[in-house]
Amino acid sequence: QAGERNHKKSCSVLCEGCAVKYAWMQKHRKQFDLNDMSDALEVSLSGYRAWQRGGVQDRKQLTDEQLLSTIENIYRQCKGAYGSPRIVRELRARGLSASKLRVERLMREHGIRARHKRRYKVTTDSKHGLPLAENLLERNFAPSAPNQVWTSDITYLWTGEGWLYLAIVMDLFNREVIGWSLKPKMSADIVTDALTMAWFRRKPAKGVMHHSDRGSQYASQVFQDKLKEYGMRCSMSRKGNCWDNAPTESWFHSFKNERYHGIKYQTHEEMKAESFEYIEVFYNRTRLHSTLGYLSPTAYLQRWLQQQNPPQRAA
Fold first, then answer.
1. Which range, of 10-24, 175-189, 222-236, averages the lowest pLDDT?
2. CB atoms within 10 A of CB 156
3. Which residues pair with 236 in a beta bridge?
4. pTM of the predicted model as reported, rounded to 2 decimal places
5. Is the CB of residue 87 less than 8 Å from the CB of residue 107?
6. Reduced to 3 states, what is the DSSP secondary structure of residue 137?
7. What's the sign of the alpha-carbon dihedral 219, 143, 91, 98?
């Protein structure tokens, strides 16, 4: 790896080995993402661009000190949410040349790392006698369009004023949180309020699949009535199987790792403000999502909409 880094740094005219890799990237550029190919082949995008121009690399590259300062700035802006893969993507989105190996080295040397993950813990109560729905989703986590599958779940958050419970509704297509509710009691109205917010934001056609765990809140009559009112199909995970709702569980893991663990919130209002900022400002609109090709949920949806309705050329 050290030899590869030194080679990249010293090679101003592209060598034969690099040229072979760049030729392969050029041939497959419509099949694979350029960022992914450059990472896999351990070459820089700036080198690829130079190869396209005829072979001489652009010498205007950031020094280690300049690149480290930019990395630290991105890390502060995302409040420690990003590890090296997302920081590399963010640097490239800003038009800066940075190899994955170089970013990893600088972050490692200066102790910059994403917040650690905690283990999953069950929060909802499935020990009840209410009617349950079949698992219609069957772990098909990749719908082909928006408003086909919505998933929901609840988690708990401790503050100096006691517990708060956060319920979310996610559109599985672009992993956007389209509805959420934060309350001091984990009753049926928390999930109903989150669903209502999601419905008013999207107002989808009838037939949306709503998937959740078997918690009493989701099995309650008031929530089931709301699903019927909106013309939605109910799906529930199998007993004790959190993987049946993995994307939503993953969202809670990210939220807690990036905004909750290791931070003391003294009041409910502090926790509510942080939840709003994370969901509405950072996660939906800014945070790079690996499942979405390192686009934010909003950007991914906008790109899909543009592809469905490309601009018409003037005659």
1. 10-24
2. 14
3. 212
4. 0.66
5. yes
6. coil
7. positive
